[in-house]
Each structure stands twice: as structure tokens, then as C-alpha cells.
Amino acid sequence: MKHILKQHLTVTFQYEVYFSENIFSIDNSLFRDALAPYLKPGLVRQLLFVIDEELSLAHPGLLKQIDVYFQGQVHLALVKEKIIIPGGEVAKNNPYYFNQIVEAIHRHKVDRHSFVVAIGGGSVLDVAGYAAAVSHRGIKHIRVPTTVLSQDDSGVGIKNGINFFGKKNFLGTFAPPIAVFNDYQLLETLSDRHWVAGIAEAIKVALIKDATFFEWLRDQVDGILKRNADTMKYLIWRSAQLHMDHIASGDPFELGSSRPLDFGHWSAHKIEQLSDFQILHGEAVAIGIALDTTYSFLQGYLNECDYKEILRVLQAYELPIFHQLLKDERVISDLLDGLEEFREHLGGKLTIMLLRAVGVGLEVHEMDHDRIREALARLKKLDEVQQQRKLVSLPD
Amino acid sequence: MKHILKQHLTVTFQYEVYFSENIFSIDNSLFRDALAPYLKPGLVRQLLFVIDEELSLAHPGLLKQIDVYFQGQVHLALVKEKIIIPGGEVAKNNPYYFNQIVEAIHRHKVDRHSFVVAIGGGSVLDVAGYAAAVSHRGIKHIRVPTTVLSQDDSGVGIKNGINFFGKKNFLGTFAPPIAVFNDYQLLETLSDRHWVAGIAEAIKVALIKDATFFEWLRDQVDGILKRNADTMKYLIWRSAQLHMDHIASGDPFELGSSRPLDFGHWSAHKIEQLSDFQILHGEAVAIGIALDTTYSFLQGYLNECDYKEILRVLQAYELPIFHQLLKDERVISDLLDGLEEFREHLGGKLTIMLLRAVGVGLEVHEMDHDRIREALARLKKLDEVQQQRKLVSLPD
Ligand SMILES: NC(=O)c1ccc[n+]([C@@H]2O[C@H](COP(=O)([O-])OP(=O)(O)OC[C@H]3O[C@@H](n4cnc5c(N)ncnc54)[C@H](O)[C@@H]3O)[C@@H](O)[C@H]2O)c1
Ligand SMILES: NC(=O)c1ccc[n+]([C@@H]2O[C@H](COP(=O)([O-])OP(=O)(O)OC[C@H]3O[C@@H](n4cnc5c(N)ncnc54)[C@H](O)[C@@H]3O)[C@@H](O)[C@H]2O)c1
Ligand SMILES: [Zn+2]
Ligand SMILES: [Zn+2]
């Protein structure tokens, strides 16, 4: 009788990310086909839909289309009631929406072999994914991301969460979906602001993983801003792939101790918060990329040519590299406090991803506060120049 | 650009289950030593304790002992406030206690690199484990089970949960702890009723996995009922080991579709519920074992000798094999409905574990309602005989 028993568990998760269009059009069988392996003769699985309200308003035919799509299915039954929740951060801030989904799962007896399908931006996906993950210790979950950011980053990943006590993602889990459908057509109604914001995550992942993709991004500004479909499809596809590889090759559930932060994200999270979420996540990431790129240059890690090109690309995409909030000394010192909070969050040892070159990251464990201030001052200036140019060029 | 990206993730979890005594006695370094690999020079990790109220009343020195145990530790800091929550099902029924733990994690800034330590029966472990699992997407969690049932079964496993909408474990996750400490000394204050109830899980696992262990259990009734320490230590150790092996060899997160129910548990869950939790989980499991054993015999799967011996062993341990509730026709039909609910819960295909012999399980996908009634009638009779014997033997 040994006094220690050792437990060793290995858990494997698999899922597919599909790229398609009009996925609920009756003649696109992709979604139905993807569910087929989960169905069994003689049994009926339920589908509970959770849908982003603005998305559903922008696509008025969608709800009806979904009903028609599943009509006559023998092994699939739609839950009649669809849960419509407002998009954006409010979905994660107000626990009402989490409760609403859990309550619907209970009321309609949606079980572990049925499906919760979430359609919407990253916020709706995060709350629906969390509700599905903890109901019955995990109901099968399907994601249909409808923003650039959720299609090229968050929606193809494995995290979910809601805000609590004013803290971003205070409650949440790691819970891989069983399938993700990136439907390009749903993106078309997205505002320009959200269209552009999601590109920041593609630039981020290119900068630390794939110089070729960054060059491609540099060369495609026009097509993307003119909403060329094929260009955006490739951007999303490649960014999703790089994000997925990153998750699979690392420590997916972040069980280890020194998880390096996502590039540009230590300040991004804090900037979002300091602006009361007036600055979008993608926008804050753009500012964060600009800041850490400038810092990398000032520290001598990154050469001037790369540094300038990165800032030029951000600006070309009309992504912010600075925000007037950051002119306020109190905000700057809050931002620097954020660095300390991250140190705590990481268990005392800070790990920050910087750049050695385009496509090549560099981890550091310390950041110099004065250098950060210097970087902010540079970005402020660059931003002013850009604003003036815009003013000057307005007349023509 | 392929239209499908496949994601494949492998996640590994490891933890130790330690068997010891007086784990918070200053000269027992086991607990401190187990934490050592998680500590880093120059950093301080927090420990937030969540403690079963009745346990703490039964061991009045415990809280103080914990304070002393961690005094002078340089890399570990106790959160001053200890969360004391009532033991038993109320801890899981009232969301107040879940919120209380989450709120303390927030208020004391307990991060992913700190520890939530839960000490108590299965109920307190379940709610504390759930709160730790979803806070910051998973704080490191340590369990100190203090009932026979939680030391020999639930506490060494990976599930947690709370009740919601009156449904057992409606919310919960699979979240392996980082360590479990089975402290025999803490068990000594347990009531006889709870002492005996936890044995049902050992009998259950022996019956489907290990005939030798069942024979051992058959021969140790006296020692166990007289609370012989070495006998109970072996019972817990072997039962924990069999339960752990079962988890590791199967589908730990129950992602697959046809998870066979635990032996004796389809009716146990329903009986607990129908009695408004007046019947303890372990007691309900004993009745469930008796029922499925009798059913296995009546169906010709199990020979009469094994059948009789199993019932004799349950009765020798003073575990119930029947309950007066089950005399009521409405309760019986609720119980049979429970079978249908499980069919739904398993996604339409019922899988029930029965017995082919002691130590040899048998999975079936259908149960005959009349046979179940016949089994209940037999158990009712056997139980009456036993009650009469007790009455007769009372005077001496
Ligand atoms: N889980 C993760 O790993 C992860 C990673 C990064 C970000 N996030 C989270 O994602 C959230 C941001 O997600 P987001 O950028 O997708 O924004 P969002 O979900 O907040 O959506 C932005 C707005 O667009 C609307 N909308 C969505 N799709 C639309 C469409 N096709 N047409 C018109 N309007 C549409 C929404 O209703 C909302 O008002 C944040 O909460 C962030 O924390 C999560
Ligand atoms: N997570 C799982 O895998 C799993 C598996 C089986 C059961 N469970 C759950 O476990 C719960 C039952 O747990 P349990 O049987 O340990 O009972 P319990 O947690 O309900 O505790 C029983 C009673 O004993 C008290 N107590 C605990 N330790 C004591 C001690 N050492 N001395 C004196 N009193 C003590 C408690 O305060 C409580 O009043 C149920 O909710 C059940 O659903 C969970
Ligand atoms: Zn991001
Ligand atoms: Zn049990």
C-alpha cells in the first residue's frame, strides 16, 4: 500500500473549422454534413441557437432561413425558442444573458448529446460558449463567428468567458467547440470600424509567426479596405490557421506557469478597460502592437526599417496607433500599473512578447517604464502628424 | 487554401493522491513538500482555504493549526479569511456559497498561480472545485476530502458541480485537482451513518472491477464497523486506486457518446432525489447495487450464490438494500421514469452496467420494467425479514 497514487490523464480534443458562405442556405449541406457523425439511427438531437441581436437585425432573413434549413431533418430537432442576446461587451458584462442561456438549456432539456450553436461576434460566442461549457459539465458547442476578429482569432480558439466584478473574463473555461463555421457572407453587414478592428489580430500573429503573411498584409491594404471578398477570405483563413497552430503547439489550457502574453496585449487589455470599452479590442490591440513595436525598436531589438514599416502598415489599415486618453499622465501611470498587474496575474514572473524582426518574436521578463513613456511620446507625435495629414487632405 | 482546417489538441493532467494523517501538524511536511514544485524564488503564492463548517466544528483546533502550519513560509501566504461553508447538499443547492467563494477569489486577488484548498465532504469539495475551475479559467485546486465517500471515490476524481433548477450537478466542469490529501485522522469524527455510507462506493467498484477486493470487503465487516483504522485505510486506498484507474483508462472528460453509468447509479440518483436528499448518496448507491444485483440474477446473468452473497455483504455493513419510499406505486413509477430520463441524458441510447459475476460487469441497453418491479418486491421482502430480525434481537 503505497502512500502516493499518481494519476495521469490524457484528453484529446478535435474539431474542424469550416470556411464557407451562406451556410444556412438550403442547398449548402456543409453544416448538416458536419453534424452527421454525431447522429444515431432512431435518436433525435436538439439544436439550441444563441444569436447576436445586431447580427440578426442586419440579416433579417436569417432566423427563418435556419428554420427552413433544418426542416424535415429526422435526427435533428430545432429548439423553437432562439435565444437572442445583444452583441458587444454588454453580453459579457450582464450575468442576465449567461443565466438566460443556462435557463433555456434547462427548460428545453438540452442534454450533453445535443448542440448549442452560437452565431455572433466574439462577445456572444464567449458567453454562449461559457454557458454550454458548464451546463451538464459540457454540452457540445458549435460556433458561427460573424466578425473579422472572431473569424480570424477568438472564434477558432478554445476560450470562453464572462466579465465579473468589472474584471474581463473573470469567469470562464477552456472548452474546445466541436465545430466552427466561418461564413464570409455574414461578415458583409459588419461596420467599417469592426471590419478593420479584426485585422489587428491578423497583423499581430503575422508579426510574431510569419513574415511572409505580414508582407502579404502590407500589400493588400487597398483590397481589404475596399472590402474585396477574396482578399479578406485569405486574411481570415491564414490568421485562423496561425492562431490554431499556436494553440495546438503550446499549452492549450495554459496549465504551465509562464505563458507568454499575446503580442501587443498587455497594454491592449488595460487600454480597453481604461476607455470603458469605448476602444474596441482590435483597436486596442493595434495600439498595443504600435507600443511594443516602438519599444522593441528603442531597446535596440528591432531595426528601424522594420519598426517604421509596421507602423506604416497599421496606419494604412486605418488602425489607431495611439489614443488621446494616453495623453493623460494618470492614464499612463494606470497603464504602467497594468504591467504590474500582469506580473501578478502571471504569478510573479512577467513574460512579455516583443519583436526581434518581422516574423520573429522575443520574450523579455522586464520592461523599462521610462522607455515605455518614450515610446508613447513618439506614437503621440506620429499620430498628430497623421491627423494633420488627414485634415489637410480632406478638401480634395 | 483548404476549406477545412482541422484542430487536434492533446492536454495532459497529472496529480498525486497522498495518504497520510494529521497533514496540518507542524512536523508533517507532506503538504508543504507537495507545493514546493509550484513555488519560485522571490515569489509568493496565496492559499485560500474553503472549509466544511461541521468538519471545522468537529476539529476545533484545525483552523489554528493551519495558520501555524504555514507560519514563516516565505513563498506561501495564507489568505487571512477562511471561507467556512455548511457541509451537505445545501452547499451545492444554494448558489450563495458558490458566489461567496468566487467573490473571495476576486477580493483577495487569488490568481491562476495561487491555490484554492478545499477541506470537507464531497459537497463542499464539489462547490469549491467548481468555483476554482471557472475563476480566471481555472485556479490550481487542492482537495482534502473528509468523508469516507469523498476519500474513496469522489474526492480523488475530476468532477465538480453545483445543483441548479433543482437538478443535481446541473452546472459543473471536469477539472483535475493538482493534489489530493486523504487524511485518515480527519475521518475519525464522522458519524456512523456517513462512515458506513461511503463504503457503498468501495463495494460498487469492487463488484465491477476486482473480485479479490470484494472478498476482502466481505471478510472485513467487523473491523470496519468497529472502526479499525488499518482496515478502513486499506478500504479507502484500494477503492481510490480502482476509481482512479477507471477514470484514466476511459474517457476522462466523458466526451464520447455512450458513457456507461456507474454501477447501481441509475436508480441511486433518482432515489436520493425522490427522498429530497434524506437518503444519502452512499445509501442510495447501496439500494441501487441491491436492485441491479437482484435484477442481474433474475435475468439469469448472475448466479444465485453471488447474488445472495452481495446482498448479505450490503446488509452486514448495515447499508440499506431497500427504502420504504419504494413501497409507494407512484415512487416506483417515478423511478422507472428515471430510467427514461437517463436514456435522454445519454443521448437516446441507454447503457446500464449490470453484473455477470462478482468482479465482472455486463453492459445492457434495455431494462425490463416488470423485472425491475419483481426485483423491488424481492428486496422489500428481504428488508422486512432483516427488520424483524433486528426487532427480535433488540432485547439481548
Ligand atoms: N475567447 C477568446 O479567446 C477571445 C479572444 C479575443 C477577444 N475575445 C473577446 O471577443 C469580444 C470582442 O469580439 P468582437 O470583436 O467579435 O466584437 P463583438 O462581439 O463585441 O461584436 C461587435 C459588434 O458587432 C455586432 N455584429 C456582430 N456581427 C455582426 C455582423 N456580421 N454584422 C453587423 N453587426 C455585427 C455585434 O452585435 C456588436 O455590436 C471581446 O469581449 C473580447 O474579450 C475573446
Ligand atoms: N464529484 C464527484 O465525482 C462526486 C461523486 C459522487 C458524489 N459526489 C457528491 O458528493 C456529495 C456527497 O458527499 P459526502 O458523502 O462526502 O457527504 P457531504 O459532503 O454531504 O458531507 C456529509 C456530512 O458530513 C459532514 N462532515 C464532513 N466531514 C466530516 C468529518 N470528518 N467529521 C464530521 N462531519 C463531517 C458534512 O458537513 C456533512 O454534514 C454529493 O453532493 C454527491 O453528489 C460527487
Ligand atoms: Zn486579442
Ligand atoms: Zn456515487
Question: How are the elements arranged and paired?
Answer:
Two copies of one chain form a homodimer.
Chain A: E1 4-20, H1 30-35, E2 45-52, H2 53-58, H3 62-70, E3 76-78, E4 83-85, H4 90-93, H5 95-107, E5 115-120, H6 122-134, E6 140-145, H7 148-152, E7 162-164, E8 167-171, E9 179-183, H8 184-187, H9 192-197, H10 199-209, H11 211-219, H12 221-225, H13 229-249, H14 265-274, H15 281-298, H16 304-316, H17 329-345, E10 352-357, E11 360-364, H18 369-393
Parallel strand pairs in A: 1-9, 2-3, 2-4, 2-5, 5-6, 6-9
Antiparallel strand pairs in A: 7-8, 10-11
Helix pairs in contact in A: 5-6, 10-11, 10-13, 10-15, 14-15, 14-17, 15-16, 15-18
One zinc ion (ZN) binds at residues 153, 201, 262, 265, 281, 285 of chain B.
Structure description:
2 copies of one chain form a homodimer. Chain A is globular. In chain A, the strands form 3 sheets. In chain A, strands 1, 2, 3, 4, 5, 6 and 9 form a 7-stranded parallel sheet that branches. A two-stranded antiparallel sheet of chain A has the order 7-8. A two-stranded antiparallel ribbon of chain A has the order 10-11. By secondary structure, chain A is of the alpha/beta class. The longest helix of chain A is centred in the last third of the chain and has 25 residues, at 369-393. The mean pLDDT of chain A is 94. In chain A, helix 6 (122-134) links the parallel strand 5 (115-120) and strand 6. Chain A folds into 2 domains: 16-190, Rossmann fold, CATH 3.40.50.1970; 193-393, Up-down Bundle (Dehydroquinate synthase-like, alpha domain), CATH 1.20.1090.10. Chain A has helices at 30-35, 53-58, 62-70, 90-93, 95-107, 122-134, 148-152, 184-187, 192-197, 199-209, 211-219, 221-225, 229-249, 265-274, 281-298, 304-316, 329-345, 369-393, and strands at residues 4-20, 45-52, 76-78, 83-85, 115-120, 140-145, 162-164, 167-171, 179-183, 352-357, 360-364. Helix content of chain A is 49%, strand content 17%. The first copy, chain A, has 18 helices and 11 strands. Chains A and B meet through strand 1, helix 5, strand 8 and helix 13 of A and strand 1, helix 5, strand 8 and helix 13 of B. Strand 1 (4-20) of chain A pairs antiparallel with strand 1 of chain B. One zinc ion binds at residues 153, 201, 262, 265, 281, 285 of chain B.
